[in-house]
Amino acid sequence: MAGSTYGEVFKLTTFGESHGEAVGVIVDGVTPGVEIDNAYIQKQMDRRKPGQSSVTTPRKEYDTINIVSGIYDGKTTGTPMCILLYNTDMKPEAYDDIRNAFRPGHADYTYLQKYGIRDHRGSGRASGRETAGRVAAGAVARKLLERRGVEIVAYTKSLGGIKCETYDESYIEQNPVRACDPVAAEKMINRIHELAAAGDSCGGIVECRIRGVKPGIGEPVFDKLDAELAKAMLSIGAVKGIEFGAGFAAAEMLGSEHNDPMDASGFLSNNAGGIVGGISNGAEIVFRVVVKPTSSISKPQQTMNVRGEEQTIVTIGRHDPSICPRIIPVVEAMASIVLEDLYKRQGALHDQ
Amino acid sequence: MAGSTYGEVFKLTTFGESHGEAVGVIVDGVTPGVEIDNAYIQKQMDRRKPGQSSVTTPRKEYDTINIVSGIYDGKTTGTPMCILLYNTDMKPEAYDDIRNAFRPGHADYTYLQKYGIRDHRGSGRASGRETAGRVAAGAVARKLLERRGVEIVAYTKSLGGIKCETYDESYIEQNPVRACDPVAAEKMINRIHELAAAGDSCGGIVECRIRGVKPGIGEPVFDKLDAELAKAMLSIGAVKGIEFGAGFAAAEMLGSEHNDPMDASGFLSNNAGGIVGGISNGAEIVFRVVVKPTSSISKPQQTMNVRGEEQTIVTIGRHDPSICPRIIPVVEAMASIVLEDLYKRQGALHDQ
Amino acid sequence: MAGSTYGEVFKLTTFGESHGEAVGVIVDGVTPGVEIDNAYIQKQMDRRKPGQSSVTTPRKEYDTINIVSGIYDGKTTGTPMCILLYNTDMKPEAYDDIRNAFRPGHADYTYLQKYGIRDHRGSGRASGRETAGRVAAGAVARKLLERRGVEIVAYTKSLGGIKCETYDESYIEQNPVRACDPVAAEKMINRIHELAAAGDSCGGIVECRIRGVKPGIGEPVFDKLDAELAKAMLSIGAVKGIEFGAGFAAAEMLGSEHNDPMDASGFLSNNAGGIVGGISNGAEIVFRVVVKPTSSISKPQQTMNVRGEEQTIVTIGRHDPSICPRIIPVVEAMASIVLEDLYKRQGALHDQ
Amino acid sequence: MAGSTYGEVFKLTTFGESHGEAVGVIVDGVTPGVEIDNAYIQKQMDRRKPGQSSVTTPRKEYDTINIVSGIYDGKTTGTPMCILLYNTDMKPEAYDDIRNAFRPGHADYTYLQKYGIRDHRGSGRASGRETAGRVAAGAVARKLLERRGVEIVAYTKSLGGIKCETYDESYIEQNPVRACDPVAAEKMINRIHELAAAGDSCGGIVECRIRGVKPGIGEPVFDKLDAELAKAMLSIGAVKGIEFGAGFAAAEMLGSEHNDPMDASGFLSNNAGGIVGGISNGAEIVFRVVVKPTSSISKPQQTMNVRGEEQTIVTIGRHDPSICPRIIPVVEAMASIVLEDLYKRQGALHDQ
Fold first, then answer.
1. Do D9 and B349 form a contact (C-beta atoms < 8 A)?
2. A91 is known to lie in a ligand binding site
3. What cofactor requirement does the entry state (chains A, B, C, D) (predicted)?
4. Rounded distance, CA C244 to CA C252, Å?
5. For A300-319, what is each residue's pLDDT tens digit?
């Protein structure tokens, strides 16, 4: 109800504030008896962690996972896993001047309106740091999905107006912006360095492809596979839109163009993005999300404070000029969680 | 779990197949003591019903609501409302030839894969007819939101490649395509007639504006207002994408452009679309959804049948060349349901 | 949230008031492809229906089921089943004199306090008639459980102070009070006739035995099998307590007496009632519920009215002197629903 | 779904095993802006903790709470509270000999059947230690209820066959068995010492009284106040039954005796235990639970092991001869959680 929980069978609850003692996650509904290697989870954490390259924030969080429960003798027990990530490189004093001012693009104003109180230090609960718990839970889901033959990969499709023109999957984890096109990647890195120098930030588009999902996954009519993915993606702070398959381009297509014909080998096109009637059809699942420019910039901006006075604000602190590179493991994590949950729901329906 | 239910406090469950006895909805969690005029609900049903104009399917459903429970002496009692809509103009025999073939763009294949069995008549549960129950429930939510001062309006923004250039809200319900621009509307109507003659269909974009939502609505971190709206919209069969405020255009914006500055009177721009950190900020909520071209077309298409044989299919039957005009009341209904539910969740949080 | 729904995977929602148009139920999460014979469900309805013998209320409801959705060609489709039971023998005018007075033992006062409004006719939503929907849903669950080899039987263990001393399962459905002891049954019937003549009513105890449940069913820590059964039973209006296995007698036992020892063949006693740590252990599940005396009696009672004035009330109308005989199918239905839901949850946990 | 979560608005999720790193709880849906004194929560922890007197287990857990999130500047923020309780006095080696044997009365066998794997150390997740998290969450609920004027008190009503004959509320926390009768308390203490010496244990009855609940709390039809309390109480490992008001005695009462008459001042008796139709009626809420004898006894018992062989077992370790004294704060905690959640649900229903 209070919104910190996602999932019905494979279920996670995140907790923690950016500058509190720790952030973390509870994962319940985990298949028992599955070997989970700590390094497997840590690897995903490291893809999200700050300070990993010149294009990300210099905040130094080691994000070393601490599994408090749910594992015995290296295997899941089926009881809830609690994974803690202690906050280490906190500078709450850096936020003293925003205690009373509302930073444009941030949730400062809306949190105060909602709760009547807020923990302003580093955005508190609204911080992107909350997603660390999601990535830990997502790694557990990813492990379970591997056993089902499901593969998930996300990457930067465009950033700061620069678009990928080629697709080289092997290159994605080889460049700090996680772009799928080596030429575009180079330009994106330069763009980020320019923006960092100018105290500004930029948006981008992240694309996600999911292979190996069997047909039949997704629950009509409200918990459709695309509806659940849309919710999961829009629950990531910086995401402002999502489209599946042909997406918004479908607005200018005819039915005779958009419908995917079939032959005995399967679908001959994929305008549907692998989902029809909210259920996977066995084709590759493809969606794109738009990531807004980072709200924290050091250019002066006009705003209001809690006393209703107008003022100028400069958001100092340590920030990513573009969120795309570090949002990618979060997109993959949420996609993994959605899929593992819906697989288990399909299992429940057919249980004899 | 099985996906026929949406909402936590204000909660609806739809049921029924296109060519069964009836479709309908249960609405639970309704504020007690509210006067509900049957005509108020019926008005919304009439906006969605087939056969209302030359641009919609000729299937004739009167969609007369039958409130079975939850109302006494003209007022809600707080107990579940069951609203039934009997199916009247059914022609199941029209679907005999698709009993074994998978229509491109339809959920025929995916339903069979999911359930191992399906009611093929008029798409069964996957039919757009299922949304009739949502519109009935949405009318109840709309009534409750009116008491809160919330106003919701959706309209066709583009259709078949024709875009609205002006915005005249008073004109929306005056034209059969529900466009916001009289000039564009005329062109759209002609386009639909052409496509109907050619046995084809087209996509479009529907935009929705919501005014009067107080700041503070939406639940961090998974049940954000935009996440819930995204889920609700993508749960509508033909919707393939959603964007809020500046939407996908944010991919090419800088932080200094996208952030909405504030002064003492409020926000000076609305790139956020009225939602920051998943919580309403008091500005107008604006989102757009892309509606795919109607899957049912009478042009021959290549497909497969249940025996794995390739065949050609012509989808006869009675269909809308564009779903936009009739999807608009469904978009408004789902938006109403999302908001009323989140308002009540905010009420629960602050209840003393 | 509003409380009309039970279950996580196998899920039902009831609706309807005693003297409205109909009562009914939505069942979602039904295994697809299962043959459901209407007569199978109707048989359970007939066990609950009023007017079935001299010991029950003379209200005449035929309770003929009307399956609106979720079945095609005699098989479940996996989509929600809506089952309607029209109200036929209504005498709302019989309730005119209680429009303003609170009947002792009834929910008149509490409903008004909760909702600020109520449908007083025949107790409205608080009527035992609401359980008709549960019995219909329970019959679906029972069908699914039969495929798993699970058998559920409930019976009157004591009534009006008369206790069963023997156990003859084959006799239970042969006598109108559904007692398990022919000698006690005769006395119970006479007791009921006496009480009916005196305008009074009596309580009793119903026992339930469930056989064939495999070990491992039930979800630690809050959704234990006994916790779910307790909730389900206490959700039946007239039930005021429940005990498992040795039950309240355990208060005077030693650990060395209460612990059930095992040998290679299984458990050597069953003080646990088949449930340990909230999980089935493979032994027979045994519980007892206490059923309060029917609240509606024709003896004059002291009460208050909505204006705060004291008055005397005589509850006329048509009522059961003891609820035990007709509550038995409701107890079995709720037990079936709990078990089918937990079986499916176990299936979800282990789904690969 | 996996059962580690309770509540709809005020919601808790417990995690952790008896001999893992920690046990703990996440509490979501907490009213923001409420001052929570750490000492307030710790006081409840201390009432539950082991080693507090001669009648409890000598295991020494300090159970010092560690609030990881959800509090800022001494006040709740409305975001999830994570409360950790590190395990300190663990002796996992004490459990080596039960790694393969099923202890009678314990969940060893059922957990293995359910999950196919188990953490056997100190009963793992099935340990009573899991309730520490509930008591922490219950303290938060209690704080919120105090603001509503609600008061909850539980006490030992009978233990080892010794029954309280008088009621002195001020004495309850003055004696280690938490009995309400000084004479009975003395006998109970002696009984426990005898049983400890004999390597045996005993059961008892705990009664709970709740005052100050306004009429109207509880959700028809499945989430009745008594249904939710029943579920919450039966979710406590050692509880095997519950009864409200007159309880099982109602089986031998007439309607004219059991119905509670009213006058202008309220109800003249309380056979209903303060709940009618599943909704609070403003009278004192009264229920009793039966607590089974502690399963861990040092008398030799017959059992089976994982290889299917019969064997004798002596459960060494450190255990409470009766669970009643330490279960009392757990009963109060769960009652607090149920009530705060249902209060908030009532708030959601009437939110304007």
1. yes
2. no
3. FMNH2
4. 15
5. 999 999 998 999 998 766 67
Q: Please, which residues 308-347 of chain D have a Cβ atom closer than 8 Å to chain C?
A: 308-310, 345-346
Give the range of the structural domain holding residue D270, as residue numbers without chain letter.
Answer: 5-350
Specify which residues B244 forms β-bridges with: B287
Which of C217, B233, C350 is CA-nearest to residue A343?
C350
- Phi/psi-derived region of residue D154, left when phi > 0, alpha when psi is between -120 and 50, beta in every other case: beta
CA B22 – CA B65 distance, rounded (Å): 11
Contact D318, D307 (CB under 8 A): no
Buried-state track B278-304, b at ≥16 Cβ within 10 A, e below 16: bbbbbbebbbbbbbbbbbbbbeebebb
% of residues, chain C, pLDDT over 90: 85
Alpha-carbon dihedral angle through residues D65, D67, D71, D74, given to the nearest 10 degrees: 40
Q: Are A342 and A143 in contact (CB under 8 A)?
A: no
B80 is in an annotated binding site: no
Q: Tell whether B318 is in a known binding site.
A: yes
Return the structure tokens found at D138: 């219950």
**Sign of torsion, CA D176 D181 D186 D187?**
negative
Classify C207 as helix, strand or coil. Answer: strand
Alpha-carbon distance A71 to nearest alpha carbon in chain B (angstroms): 26
Residue written as token pair 């005699």 = C74
pLDDT exceeds cutoff 70 at B42: yes
Q: For residues C239 and C205, what is the distance between their CA atoms, to the nearest angstrom?
A: 9
Chains that touch B (3 or more CB pairs under 8 A): A, C, D
Rounded average pLDDT over B324-329: 97
Is A111 near chain B, with CB under 8 Å?
yes
- What total of structural domains would you count in chain A? 1
Nearest CA in chain B to D352: B148
- For residue B293, say whether it is annotated as part of any ligand binding site: yes
Task: Determine the distance in angstroms separating the CA of A48 from the nearest CA of chain C, rounded to an integer.
Answer: 28
Q: Report residue A329's pLDDT band, with 50, 70 and 90 as the boundaries.
A: very high
Q: How far off is chain D from A8, nearest CA to CA, in Å? A: 6
Whether residue D137 contacts residue D337, with contact meaning beta carbons closer than 8 Å, is answered with yes
**Residue whose token pair is 């069997």:** A214
Q: How many residues does chain C have?
A: 352
User: What is the DSSP-derived secondary structure letter of residue B35?
Assistant: B
Question: Does A350 reach chain C within 8 Å, measured CB to CB?
Answer: yes
Residue corresponding to tokens 């959800």: D70
CB contact under 8 A, D77 and A32: no
pLDDT digits (tens, 9 = 90+) for D169-208: 999 999 999 999 999 999 999 999 999 999 999 999 999 9
Question: Nearest CB to B13: which of C77, C80, C124?
Answer: C80
User: From the list C29, C147, C351, which residue is nearest A344 (CB)?
Assistant: C351
Chain D partners of C229 at a C-beta cutoff of 8 Å? 234
**Calpha distance A24→B178 (Å, rounded):** 47
Phi, psi for D2 (deg, rounded to 5) = -80, 0
The C-alpha atoms of residue D192 and residue D198 are separated, in whole angstroms, by: 10
The pLDDT tens digits of the residues spanning C148-183 come to 999 999 999 999 999 999 999 999 999 999 999 999
Closest CA to C78 of B128, B115, B235, A342: B115
C-alpha to C-alpha distance for A79 and B45, rounded to whole angstroms: 47
CB-neighbour burial class of residue D284 (10 A; exposed 0-12, middle 13-18, buried 19+): middle
- Burial of A294-309, coded b for 16+ CB within 10 Å and e otherwise, reads bbbbbeebebbbeeee
Contacts of B75 in chain C (CB under 8 A): 117
Nearest C-alpha of chain B: how many angstroms from A99?
16
**CATH code at D332?**
3.60.150.10
Q: Cβ neighbours of residue A161 under 8 Å, at least 6 residues apart?
A: A191, A202, B251, B252
Hey, what amino acid is at B95? Y
